[in-house]
Amino acid sequence: MMGPDAVSRQRIELASSARQRQSAAAPPPALAVSGLTVAYGEKPAVFSVDMTVAQGTMTAIVGPNGAGKSTLLKAVLGLVKPLSGEVRLFDLPLSRVRDRLAYVPQRASVDWDFPARVIDVVLMGLHRELGLLRRVRPEHLDRARACLARVGMEDFATRQIGQLSGGQQQRVFLARALAQSADLYLLDEPFAGVDAATEKAIIAVLKDLQAEGRTIVAVHHDLSTVRAYFDHLFLINTRPIAAGPVAEAFTSANLQRAYGGRLGEAQVAGMQADGVQGQDTIR
Amino acid sequence: MMGAEFVALSLTPMLIGTMAAIACALPGNFLLLRRQALIGDAISHVVLPGIVVAFLLTGTVAALPMMLGAAGAALLCVGMIEAVRRMARIEAGAAMGVVFTTLFAAGVLLLEQSDTSGVHLDVEHALYGSLESLIWLDATGWSSLLDPVALAGVPPELPRMALALAVVTLVIGLAWRPLALSTFDEGYAATLGLPVRALGLGLVMLAALAAVAAFDAVGSIIVIAMFICPPAAARMMTDRLSRQVGWSVVFATLSAVVGYTLAGYGPLWLGYNNSVSAAGMIATVSGLILGVAMAAGPCRRRAGAASAV
Fold it and tell me: Looking at beta carbons, which residues of chain B come within 8 Å of A79?
């Protein structure tokens, strides 16, 4: 039998070894996808994708139309059922990390004629707190308004959502995600069809979030802004093409591989890739 | 019209009609916003084959087997719509149209072939119901409302409809937030952990409950009209969901009361002897209300330009 001293010494040792393990191991990745395959009917939309997103990074998922970018995001969020593969978030299964995730869907995925005001949509972001029957209190409204202010929409709180421009609708969606105060933000084409002012406002908010240590993953279609907006890139064309820091992965060779064989798009990609190369030479 | 005669002849059908209208209009709001308004149409049509099969199996037209048959048919219909939609890969509206017309036609054939001459079961009854016949013979005046003996004689459709309305109201009230959220943005709702499939199915089941309970008393014409007209008119009155649902209840009540009164007394006022079908008139009034709301409602302007940007 151990004396009291021995017991407490052993406790201290256990505690310190646990601390050592913790400090030795890097924080788990915000997102780890392995062997993910998703198919609609016969044809796979996403095939055998491995993807790791470190915490605190800002990743662009880039690829041609129909390359499975949105599908990949939806599979991560459990919105489509994969044929195979595993998704772990912060080293946990999806069902245990819902409070740490915020999803910004494509603006066009909802009917903006829905009878709701801007503030009603932002309050949806507080649903996990409000639950079925808890009353909306002034503090909830204050938080929703603060989120609107962050995207520059505080003056629109009582506006009907159908009266907003596309860019304003996109900002409302971002405000709703902000209300969740999540650690991982997953955005589907946040800059699609928005005005320049909105694009600026959104990227500023995303950079702020990153500065706070949060992780951003966005499906992105504009090759000309990848370098300015993101620090990591995931290139996909059904299969994964390239992944890594933008400085390493955003090369014309990789873009040609991702967009290759698609007329029109291939030309655009070629053009952009040339631009990329030009930048490289200048640097 | 006042007093004893009104209580005995008009009060109960008017009440039943009003409750049926509200019970259908409440889920109708959400079905309309989900672009599933046709599901109410589908359910109210397949009620016919449902009750015919129930009659053939049990040989009676008692309420319970009829309602079970109707509910079973509604479930089967929802399942078949989903199956057709997935297997044939066609749009939901078309799948509903195919399924409910086929099932309704099958119901008509079954009814023709089976010996239902001895009982009150026919297509006309299925369409128009028998609202006018739901009279309260035990009533002698307003005081009968407090008389337990007289109250025992109210038509059984009244408590049945009241129960259905209570269930519909309670469920929608409790599930309000998730229902609204998943109706607006199903994908986002799912990422919050909401059971979006169960919510969608639950809404359809609720609509089926309202349709089956209302069908017996008021027929499918009212059911179809009340799923769509009051919510659609209410949408023109406001840009907030809670107010839209409130307006839909007002319009449903208005349709039932005004429609019933016009059907019973309108022809007399015009010098004719016969009254017209109450169900038909209630549905017509709800359509007229929708027309007025579309022409003059404050929120009928749709922001089409914004979504095109």
Answer: 187, 190-191
Closest CA in chain B for residue A182? B192
Measured between beta carbons, the chain A residues lying within 8 angstroms of B306 are 112, 162-166, 169
Q: pLDDT per residue over B169-228, tens digit each? A: 999 999 999 999 999 999 999 999 999 999 998 998 899 889 888 877 788 888 889 999
Task: Residue A60: name the closest of A260, A279, A211, A244 by CA.
Answer: A244
Point out the residue among B35, B181, B240 whose CB comes nearest to the CB of A115.
Answer: B240
Instruction: Name the β-bridge partners of A84.
Output: A37
What is the DSSP code (8-state) at residue A183?
S
The verdict on residue A247 lying in a domain is yes
Nearest CA in chain B to A159: B239
Cα separation, B87 vs A237, whole angstroms: 28
Arithmetic mean of pLDDT, B261-282: 83
CA-nearest of B287, B224, B221 to B254 is B287
Is A196 within the bounds of a domain? yes
User: Are B174 and A133 in contact (CB < 8 Å)?
Assistant: yes
Tell me which residue of A137, A130, A112 sits closest to B177, measured CA to CA: A130
Range of the domain at A47: 28-108+182-278
Q: Using CA atoms, how far apart are residues A66 and B243, in angstroms rounded to an integer?
A: 41
Among A55-59, B73-77, B155-159, name the most confident range.
A55-59
CATH architecture for segment(s) B4-298: Orthogonal Bundle (1.10)
Percent of chain B with pLDDT over 90: 38
CA A191 to chain centre: 13
The one-character DSSP state at A28 is P
B244 touches chain A (CB under 8 A): yes
Q: Model confidence over A221-276: pLDDT tens digits?
A: 899 999 999 999 999 999 999 999 999 999 988 998 898 755 345 444 444 444 44
Does residue A163 fall inside a structural domain? no
Query: Residue A82 sits in a domain of what CATH number?
Result: 3.40.50.300
Candidate from A77, A114, A193 with C-beta closest to B184? A114
- Chain B hits for A113, CB-CB cut-off 8 Å, are 302-303, 307
Number of domains in chain A: 1
